[in-house]
Amino acid sequence: MKRFVCIFSISTMLSFASYSSVIAGEARRNIWRISQEIATGNSSAEIPLIELSPGYGVNISFINSGEIVEKVWLDNPIFASLDVDGCLSGLGRECNSPGATVLHLRRIKPLNVPQLPKTNSSLLTVVARGKSGRRVYVFRVTMGSVKPKYHTIEVTPTTNTESKIANLTRNINITRNINGNITSLFFINRGLKIAQKQRLILPTSSLYQRIEQFLISVKTGDAIDDSARKNGISLQLVNRLIELGRGKRKGAGSRV
Length: 256
Fold this sequence. Notes:
Blueprint: H1 2-17, H2 22-27, E1 31-35, H3 36-39, E2 49-52, E3 57-61, E4 68-74, E5 80-84, E6 102-107, E7 121-130, E8 133-143, E9 152-156, H4 160-169, H5 182-197, H6 206-219, H7 224-230, H8 235-246
Parallel strand pairs: 1-9, 2-8, 3-9
Antiparallel strand pairs: 3-6, 4-7, 5-6, 7-8
Helix pairs in contact: 1-5, 5-8, 6-7
């Protein structure tokens, strides 16, 4: 048994060592990339959660998605202020040409507004327009107490690969109590290699980069569900990678 554990541990370490861009992934951890599908609530993943800590702000960038923000609503401005890099009339300004590409949220000392309930959370709604039309994005905003792990949330276009993965995993039961141990990581890593071999996930895609960041985050001690949320990855995808890594198949003739 001891020999098996030793061999298993060594093989796991060698598997993770095969990631050539791990160091680069560490440098990108200050940016949280979220696909349009997740940020609009059109995936099975939870609404992105933004935690505002004292002394730190968070940017939401739509530059990569090529969209222009037309309207924003922050339902509870008691503990947060909102600013943009352009001009939006909804923020109390007169704008000749409304539009913005970057939003900035900042934690403030809680205000006493009799008309608003005293809560430590809020909903941020963003209406943006791009080449494919208008989209409505939603983010949960809450008060945090620790130094944030990211300073910018980057909304990225949803790729065909991500849509394919989402369709494959839509009907898979979610297991939210996955333990963040080395066994789960081993099977996730193996499943990622199988998905790459079957060309379900391409190494050049943003999804692959987010999975790498997710693995790094879990290895440093973050819970799997928390790391998945922060890196814009659904738990269905995590479960599916584990199933692939364990060699489980869903039905005869299925590629995955």
